[in-house]
Amino acid sequence: MQSSVVTEKGQELEKLTVITKKGKRAYLAMDTENKVIGYVVPLFRASHEGVRGLVETTTEEVKEEGVNYVAMRNLFIREVKEEETVQHIKVHKKTHKNQIRESADRVELGRTLQERSEFRKKFNADNLNHLPEFIVRPRGQTVWEGKSVKLHCTVAGWPKPRVTWYKNNVVISPKEHPEKYTTESNYNMHSLEIKNCDFFDTAQYYASALNVKGEASSAATVVIKRYQEGEEAGPLDPKPHGFSSEHGVTFETTLLDKFEVAFGHEGQTLSVGCTVIIFPTVKNYQPEVVWYRNAVALKPSKWVHTTWSGQRATLTLAHLNKEDEGMYTLRINTKSGFETYSAYVFVKDAEVEVEGVPVAPLDMLCHDANKDYVVVTWKQPAVEGSSAILGYFIDRCEVGTHHWAQCNDNPIKYARFPVTGLVEGRTYIFRVRALNSTGVSRASRVSDPVVALDPSDRARQRAGPSAPWTGMIKFTEEDPIVGEVPGEPSDVVVTEATKSYVVLGWKPPAQRGHEGVMYYIEKSVAASDVWQRVNTGMPVKSPRFALFDLVEGHVYNFRVRCCNSAGVGEPSAPTGDTTVADKLDLPSAPGSIVVSRNTGTSVVVSWGASKDVKHLAGYYIECSVVGTDVWVPCNNNPVTKTRFVCHGLSNGVNYVFKVKAVNSAGYSQSCPASDAVVVLAAIARPGCPTGVKLLEAANDYMVLSWDPPADNGGADIRGFFVDYRTVKGQVTGQWHQSHEKALTTASFKAENLKENVFYHFRVRAMNMAGVSVASLHSAALECKEWTITVPGVPVGLHALEVRDTSLVMLWEPPAFHGRTPVNGYYLDLKEVSACEVYGWKAVHEKAVKVKYLKVTGLTAGTSYVFRLRAQNLAGVGHPSAVLGPILAQTGPDTHEIVVDVDDDGVISMIFQCSKMAEGSEFVWSKNYKDITDSRLTIVSEKGKTRAIFNDPSLEDLGIFSCVATNTDGISSSYTLTEKDLNRFLDISHSNKFPVIPFKTVMAMDLLEKGRVRFWSQVEKFTAALQVEYVFNDVIVSQGDKYTMHFDKTTGIIEMYMDSLEVTDEGTFTFNLVDGKAKGTTSLVQIGDEFRELQKKSEFERAEWVRRQGPHFVEYLGFTVTPECDVLLKCTIGNVKPETEIRWFRDTIEIEEGDDDAKKIERQDGVLTFNIGKISKKDCGIYEITLKDARGKDKSMFKMTDEGYQAIMNELFRVIANSSTEIQVVATEQGIILYSDITYYDQDLRVTWLQKEAKIASSDRVQSGVTGEQLWLKIKEPTEKDKGKYTMDIFDGQSGVKRVLDLTGKVWEEAFEEFQRLKAAAIAEKNRARVIGGLPEAVTIQEGKSLNLTGNVWGDPAPEVCWMKGERQLVSDDRYTLKFEAGKYASITIAGVSTSDSGRYALVVKNKYGTEASEFTVSVYFPEDVQG
Questions:
Q1: Burial category of 161 from C-beta neighbours within 10 Å (exposed 0-12, middle 13-18, buried 19 and up)
Q2: Residue 107: Cβ-neighbour burial (10 angstroms; 0-12, 13-18, 19+)
Q3: Of 612, 627, 625, 632, which Cα lies nearest the Cα of 653?
């Protein structure tokens, strides 16, 4: 390559370099001083939507390819740097010879450089990527039915392309049809296998290869031959994949089993569908089934699944989210047209984990994706939780990982946020969470994946579709501009500005070089020429940039510079002043709201659109049951229209509605709540009447009747229209209208007819919605004279005021009266289940003259039917048509008429109906006749009506009834009697001339400083209440002497006086006036009562003065502790350290060293003197004095006669209350009753009673005390000692009683134990025993005689025996045994020998026991002693 330079001598020389412009490094960004400032990644251009799916499915492959690419790029950079070090410039003079030689060298050098350039292109990022290319294309094939076909192709491309197979422009999915198709992809070789081919597999098959550089496709035709005929496929058999419709047939499509309005919760799975019938049935015909949500066609995804079974179309929504809420439409397309059906699907929020947090936001979308930047938007939820939403947190996650990173540190208010810091080429998903003062919501549904790529820099080629079935893209090269500094960006604007961030956008420069450009953003404070670069660390790659950390309220300018390897370009034009603040306002409140009835569970809500709103996301509708103030969202996905059908409401419930708008800035104020509406089905035209029949006929007229329609259309029938036509044989005339005005009864007299002519009649019913279709015409009826004498059947029989045990029947007289007028009626009833012949019963015996009757005595929950007969002088006519069945049951929310007397004395009757429908009204009557006079004034409002008596008198006595029309006969009545009227008139008089009620009449309180408070409290009053303060009939006013106050919140009236003087004796009065109501309350203070009050006032004032210095809050007194210690105690106040506190006893001061000083304690303003266990020696006068500079005070306690007795009474009270319940213990002597006490004083009086009689002390019954135990001993108890025992302990007043019922089991156990112990004592006393006389050991010389005597005792006298060892001794020559006087037992052993040595025992025994007294006998030789 050659360039020219100029030397110092002005000679133009050539500068040679080995690097061509084409091969110059295009990946380094350089400034004007040729310093590397960054690295530019060469990218490609392509359709963002077309590339996104490719990137998502080949994430791992792209990562591997990216690693290889980076390695090659680094190797190439090192080679370039090494070559740069050997570059040099040769300067020499040009001669003709040298020029020719150099020309040849340049040709050779150019060839060499071209070869090297071609080699290096392989390592250039732009040349590494190339669009797919078919090396081996698929070939068409023809096979027989039942065989398999395999199509092959080989595709090259970088990155590795993805191959998709199509049949007749329809994508082949092997996963959905694994039994039919199998695809393979190995080492750029791809294949499609079609198994078990049939005739319908004949089609054109396409292989489409796609990567980030573009798309290529190739086609092959497969023909399947049929070599034998078989059974044709049936019309309901599964249709082949890709089958096309028939021609020449007109189809009619019918949808059955249509899906209704559906409700689901987030996280659930919901399916909707319809049965599709297509006529006529054509073999192998398959219609096109398309599902829409809010008029947008749905595509199958992991959230949406569609199935077509050949007869039923089903849509399944997996894992519902609020984004799935909307109007769903099924469209069945045939060649003859289409058929659609729509219904709404509501998705309710899932239960929140923490009460009060918001629900999840919805509709997370990504916009304006670039290399390192994307804008995310969402919609606010319908429910904010227990408090308003404070902001939102945005999270991102890279596809292929499970790590979610929070994008913003502080919550943002706008539902729009620019996410920066993305890594170029990576794929991300996003979600959002809402925050309020309670906590954070669940996350929204994740967004669709988005690739961080700049669409304008993805490739140097521009694309356009070339294959209609695959969307293949063509590319064209851009004109390269290399080595030049880029120009300035254009159209730099602030696309978004909030108080949190500002977003800039611009267009890249036209002149930007081959390798692409990057950008620097600069800012300047308004009115300043100083520009500061924002992104100093690294230039941005996208023509978008979000600036954070700006000062709210400040004004800024912004501009942009471009840079590439050649340097940094000139700045763009500034954006102009931009204030950092929210530019998007909250939407205005929607307009007035109108609610109309729709179905039994839904209403239609319409409202005025919000005015001047930008970027409206939609509207949220809320409803509330009247009286609850609990608002529930009707939709969880905002709607954009101003009309919405709210479903899922409760039939018959009264609701109110309100609407709020929402945009990115937040929620608007809700519009005013709508009028309350009861959820009922909309009013429709009634059904047709039935049973047209003839009641009477004459020469020129006929009387007809009919049955009203069973379905009134939701509103009362307002009238009927009758048509007629003539009949002659089989020929009928034209229909004519008999009258113009609607009939109010179900009967009609057709006049001006021709005699002996036959007529047809038909009837139409009318309500407020319109006129019904005509009924079936009657039979041919002849107009001729009747000769019947009894009256015809009554008409218009209907029931009102249906209750559990009664109802009211009303009717109209028969149209034909017979020969004489009707003079009465008979009403019959029958239970529905009773016999038709014998089940009818007469309701009354005598004929009823009026046209109404109250039927009583019904059984609740039983259905009845009724019929009516009229009578005249000739007899009783035929019964009317049967009315019913009517269920005897009081309807829900049934109200009765109540009589009210208001505060003005106005008497009125009130009736309420909570089920008023559109067009309903209240109709009052008296004695079931329309009210024509002016004695009542009717006022009706919404569901309440009031009938006001204008001048109540005896003329108003009677039955008043009220009916609510269009409500299935809701009605009530009230019978006004003379007694009731008089009672209401008395109440009215009291209300007209009212008296103000007092909750508390005037009273008097003595306050601190001796102030006197006169007060009273009013129970019921208004804000207009006025108070007049009077003393001795003279009005007093606020001043030095009197202070008045009236608290209107509590109704307390007060008057204060600082002191009472002699002149203040008299009567104090409060006079009250409240409109026309009056009230008076007084308090008399005269004579001794006044003087006592004055004395107390002066004392209280003196007490207040005393309390200004050291004083006794509680004077010296005494208390007895639970341990029965006596304390003298007082409480002092307003004491300072210098205050002197001195104790005296009998006027002698207790000094510090005295024994009594040790008993004095002071703790927290409480002084105590601990006497301990009191006795007479503690009596005396105790005194305490307080003194300092502010004053002095003293307190004295006289522990003398009365004082000492008071202490003893308190001591007795403590002792008495410490006593335990009486316990029982038995001894050998008798029974002891005892109770334990804390302490015993000798002056304590204890009395024992048996059967409420005092027990006298005797030898057998004794009472006393031992230590702290009080006892009663009963010796040798008998049956007389049984009964109720009471221990009465004197407590200083009445005494404390402890009671024991010594009867029953208690007596039996105690008496049994006494007898046992007594018997044991007797046995111990009288048992046989040795009481003395025998030694423990005896030593005797051999040959001597031994004589021992033992004293014994026993009653009865014991038996005695002597034992030696185990052998009993008996009297013989050697042993002499005697027992004398029953007391003395003796033994004599004559001439003892050594054999007599041993252990002896005297054994005594009687019935109470046995005892042995043992002793030892030792015999020795005299020689032994001498030795």
A1: buried
A2: exposed
A3: 625
Amino acid letter, residue 940:
S
Q: Which residues have C-beta within 8 Å of that of residue 1312, sequence separation ≥ 6?
A: none
Cα separation of 197 and 908, whole Å?
A: 90
Strand partners for 1030: 1035, 1069
Q: Strands 1042-1047, 998-1006: parallel, antiparallel or unpaired by DSSP?
A: unpaired
Q: Assign 1198 to helix, strand or coil.
A: strand
Both tokens of 463, joined, read: 């694309």
Distance from C-alpha of 879 to C-alpha of 1252, rounded to nearest angstrom: 85
For residue range 203-233, what is the model confidence (pLDDT) as tens digits?
899 999 988 888 899 999 999 887 554 444 4
- What would the two tokens of residue 770 be? 């319109």
**Cα distance between residue 1058 and residue 1053, in whole Å:** 17
| pLDDT (tens digit per residue) in 1015-1050 | 999 988 888 888 999 999 899 998 888 999 999 889
Contacts of 399 (CB under 8 A, 6+ apart): 56, 59, 426, 427, 428, 429, 449
Asked if 152 and 190 touch (Cβ cutoff 8 Å), the reply is yes
**Distances in whole angstroms, Cα of residue 799 to Cα of each of 227, 476, 852:** 81, 88, 10
Find the range with the poorest average confidence among 133-147, 456-470, 701-715, 745-759: 456-470
Nearest of 1127, 1121, 1131 to residue 1170 by alpha carbon: 1127
How far is Cα 900 from Cα 989, in angstroms, rounded to an integer? 13
Give counts: helices (H), strands (E), the chain: 9, 105
Q: Tell me the two tokens of residue 1115.
A: 């004077």
Mean pLDDT of 358-369: 90
CB 1124 within 8 A of CB 1215: yes
Question: What is the dihedral angle through the alpha carbons of 40, 42, 48, 53, rounded to the nearest 10 degrees?
Answer: -110
**Sequence-ordered alpha helix ranges (H) in 628-733:** none
DSSP class of residue 563 equals E
Neighbouring C-beta atoms of residue 362, cutoff 10 Å:
24
pLDDT at 98 over 70: yes
Q: How many CB atoms lie within 10 A of CB 326?
A: 19
| Alpha carbons 1310 and 1230: distance in angstroms, whole number | 9
Whole-angstrom distance, CA of residue 180 vs CA of residue 529: 73
CA distance 1139 to 1192: 9
Q: How far apart are CA 892 and CA 804, in angstroms?
A: 12
| d(C-alpha 1199, C-alpha 1179), whole Å | 5
Q: What residues contact 1023, with CB distance under 8 A and at least 6 apart?
A: 1048
Rounded to whole angstroms, how far apart are CA atoms 382 and 439?
Answer: 17
The overall pTM is greater than 0.90: no
CA angle 1216, 1221, 1226 (to 5 degrees): 125
How would DSSP label each residue in 231-261?
PPPPTTSPPPTTPPPPSS---EEEEES----
Query: What distance lies between CA 1335 and its chain's CA centroid?
Result: 100
The whole-angstrom separation of Cα 131 and Cα 799 is 86
Give the tokens for residue 207: 């292989």
- Asked if omega into 238 is within 30° of 0 (cis), the reply is no
Please report which confidence band the pLDDT of residue 470 belongs to, taking 50, 70 and 90 as the band edges: very low
Q: Residues 417-466: pLDDT tens digits?
A: 889 888 888 899 999 999 999 999 999 999 999 988 776 554 433 343 33
Phi, psi of 115 (to 5 degrees): -65, -45
- Residue 1039 near residue 1031 (C-beta atoms within 8 A): no
Helices (H), 1107-1223: 1201-1218
Strand-pair partners of 1419: 1340
In this structure, the number of other CB atoms found within 10 A of the CB of residue 1302 comes to 20
As a whole number of angstroms, the distance between CA 248 and CA 1299 comes to 114
CA dist., res. 545 & res. 492, Å (int): 11
Spacing of C-alpha 1157 from chain mean position:
69
